[in-house]
Amino acid sequence: MAHIRTYQQLLALEPTDPEEQLLECATAGEHCIFNDGHLPEPEQYGACEIRPEFLRYLILGGCDECPVDTRGIWLEGAYISGGLDLNYVSTSAVLSLFACKFQSPLYLQQSKFHLLVLSDSAFSGLHAQGIAVQDSVLMNGAQITGSVDIAGATIGGQLSLVGAKISTQSRFAISAHSADIRGGIFLHPRTEEEQDKVTAPFSATGEIYLVSAKLGGLFAENTKLTGLANSKSLTARNMSVNGDVKLGGCIATGEVKLAGSQIAGDLSCAGATFQNANGHAFNGQRMRVDQSFIWKKVDNPQGKVSLNGAHVGELDDDPANWPDAGNLHLDGFTYDRIRGKVSTSPARKEWLLNGSLYKDQFFPQPYTQYAKFLRDTGHDAQSRKVLLTRERMVRRYERKEFGPLLRAWRYFWDGLQLVVVGHGHAPFWSLGWLALLIVLATIPAHKTWEEGSFAPNSSPVLISQGWQRLQASAPNPAQVWSGDTEPAGWSPAPRDPSWSMTAPGRDWETFNRYAYAADIVIPLINFGQTEAWAPSTARGQWGWHLWWLRWVFTVFGWIVTALGAAAITGIIRRE
Asked: What is the pLDDT of residues 535-556, one digit of tens each?
């Protein structure tokens, strides 16, 4: 039907009694109320029916012969028969169609209003691409069986669908692509103010599409979001929010996608349920949250949770609420701090491990980030433990790529570095290993000396008469020669000096089992013991063993010393 433009055309339409009542209220600036302001039932349609062309004429302000009050249209409890076409309409007045039943979808593309109210109304879709509303768009409690399309809209206040119910067979329940909604989107349940009791939760069957939208906030607490065939319930890729995003208590069946979004306030998922077994349950890749990211009491996400490349100011989480390995991706996830007690608890360790494994690959960045956080907050010892675990995992997965021989060698070498210097993150472990090697070397050195299998490490001494005579007669010539033991049959006169004062080797380097052990273990320190004394392989069993063992101790001493020095100086320490 052609649009009504004049009062004569309006009269030719032969207004019904409900339309006459609306006309009277519109010109007087009063609310027009049918059915006590409640949504009409089918049997009540006749008593409150308003034709869309009649309503459109009044929304546009009427004409000189029938001017509508500048405050706009306030209609409640009416039945709008036919399609209401308000495309490209521009008015500075209010359009309030409260608790109205619409036979067909609403068309408001590229239209302009001061305030748009569709609360408690029922309609089969809203096509309002590019709509500009100076104040807010209110659809609280609305029953919508179709898509709400406000792509490219500019709304100075709120888009409020508190307690609304949207069900559609198409892809989108709400499409606000590239919309600018400065007051934010409100999707939480409708409550009864006196009792603060939830009476109508918000629910949407179909995808809520907020790609590249600019919002003052997104409040979807305790909502029910159900995706359709594409398994997406909320898509907010590259969304910009100058406030908070609240998803606490939300039940989302289908992917919640915030990839690339910029959130100036908090992102709260406390008590939420995310379900999408065949894909991402929560996709926060590359998102940025300037304040807190809250992940607590989340009910065992069914599907993947990805925070790859994301950054948050503060992570406020319960480590036990994250999914298992293969479904948690933390590569590139960074944060300035973690709320609560800093720890390397089993749950936190499991969180790090699960977030670093994907398809039999290990990604070390989550460990690096957590270690950095620990170090920045003064927990250096725990930071080194995390880095040690990271190195163990890195090397474990590297070894899988080698052949059997190289893998065996790497297993030995990695194990040696692990136990000696903790892969460079526990450099002072090497001092303990040096001490242990010295203790172990002291035992054969002591036994060899007691056995008499040590000899001066000097050719002139070995061919001297004193040594040759003691070698032939004394069971332990080294001890007698150095003056530690008197020779057999020694009976000095009372005024003669003791044997220790006259022994041929009294001025030779005194043997010390501990110094000898340190000499053969620590290559950088010289106590002079190995230069003065050498074990003999021909005198006894201990001498033979020590002759070979000193090479073993020297080799391990070099390895431990080199690894320790490298770790301490940072050569192999990669943080």
From this structure: 988 888 999 999 999 999 999 9
- Residue 2 placed within a domain: yes
Residue from 382, 385, 410, 384 nearest 396 by CA? 410
Is residue 198 a contact partner of residue 167, using CB atoms and an 8 Å limit? no
Distance CA(175)–CA(305), nearest Å, equals: 24
Does a structural domain hold residue 25?
A: yes
Residue with tokens 């001025």: 507
pLDDT tens, 477-536? Answer: 888 888 888 877 666 666 567 877 878 888 888 899 999 999 999 988 888 898 898 998
Domain containing 58 equals 1-104
pLDDT for the residue numbered 507? 81
If one counts the domains in the chain, the total is 2
Last residue of a domain, one of 51, 77, 104: 104
User: Three-state SS for 5?
Assistant: coil
- For residue 52 the two structure tokens come to 């869309």
End of a domain among 104, 134, 159?
A: 104
CA distance 152 to 130: 5
CB distance 252 to 279 below 8 Å: no
Q: Is residue 244 part of a domain?
A: no
Asked, for residue 530, whether it belongs to a domain, the answer is: yes
> Which residues lie closer than 8 Å to 126 by C-beta, 6 or more apart?
105, 106, 108, 118, 139, 144, 146, 147, 148, 149, 150
| Cβ atoms of 76 and 54 closer than 8 Å | no
